[in-house]
Design brief:
Blueprint: E1 2-4, E2 7-9, E3 14-19, H1 26-39, E4 45-48, H2 57-66, H3 78-102, E5 106-110, H4 113-122, H5 127-141, E6 148-151
Parallel strand pairs: 3-5, 3-6, 4-5
Antiparallel strand pairs: 1-2
Length: 152
C-alpha cells in the first residue's frame, strides 16, 4: 500500500523487473515478452533504467553515461555517474512508473536499483557512499515491489 494524501491505497498494477548483466539478453527477452503481450492485446508499458525515452531525464543521463564528451564532460567519477542514474530513477518512478501502477497498469522494467548497487561496487564506490544514494531510490519506491523479477 502507498500513502497518498494521508490515505493508503492498493497498487492495482503489476511491476515485472528484468535484471542481469550487460549482454546476456535481458533487453531482448523483455522485447519478446512485450511483443507477446501486444499480440494478445494486453496493455503494458516498457521502461528502462536509466531511460531512453526522448524528453526525459533518463534519456539525458543515458546520453551523458554513453557520450559524456557531447556534454563537454571530460571525466565523470563513478559516484557521480551512479548519482545521475539514481536521479533518473527517482524521476521515472514519480512521473511514469508509479502513476501507471496506480492506474492498474502493467510495467515491464529493464533494470532495477539492484544494478545500481552492483555497478557502484564494481566501480569501487565505497559502500558508505553508495548505500545512502540507493536508500533515496528505495524511499521513492515506497511499498512498490516487483510482482516478478527475472534474473537473466
Amino acid at each position: 500500500m502507498a500513502a497518498l494524501s494521508g490515505r493508503r491505497v492498493e497498487h492495482m498494477g503489476k511491476l515485472i523487473v528484468f535484471e542481469g548483466p550487460d549482454g546476456v539478453g535481458k533487453t531482448s527477452t523483455l522485447a519478446l515478452v512485450s511483443k507477446a503481450l501486444a499480440t494478445r492485446d494486453l496493455a503494458h508499458a516498457v521502461i528502462s533504467f536509466p531511460g531512453r525515452e526522448a524528453g526525459t531525464l533518463g534519456r539525458v543521463v543515458y546520453d551523458i553515461h554513453h557520450q559524456p564528451t557531447t556534454f563537454g564532460i571530460k571525466r565523470l567519477s563513478a559516484a557521480a555517474k551512479q548519482a545521475l542514474h539514481i536521479s533518473a530513477h527517482l524521476d521515472a518512478i514519480e512521473t511514469n512508473i508509479r502513476p501507471k501502477l496506480d492506474a492498474g497498469g502493467l510495467v515491464l522494467l529493464d533494470r532495477y536499483w539492484w544494478s545500481t548497487w552492483v555497478y557502484g561496487i564494481v566501480d569501487g564506490i565505497p559502500e558508505d557512499l553508495l548505500r545512502p544514494l540507493i536508500e533515496a531510490e528505495k524511499v521513492q519506491w515506497g511499498d512498490i515491489r516487483p510482482r516478478l523479477a527475472l534474473l537473466i
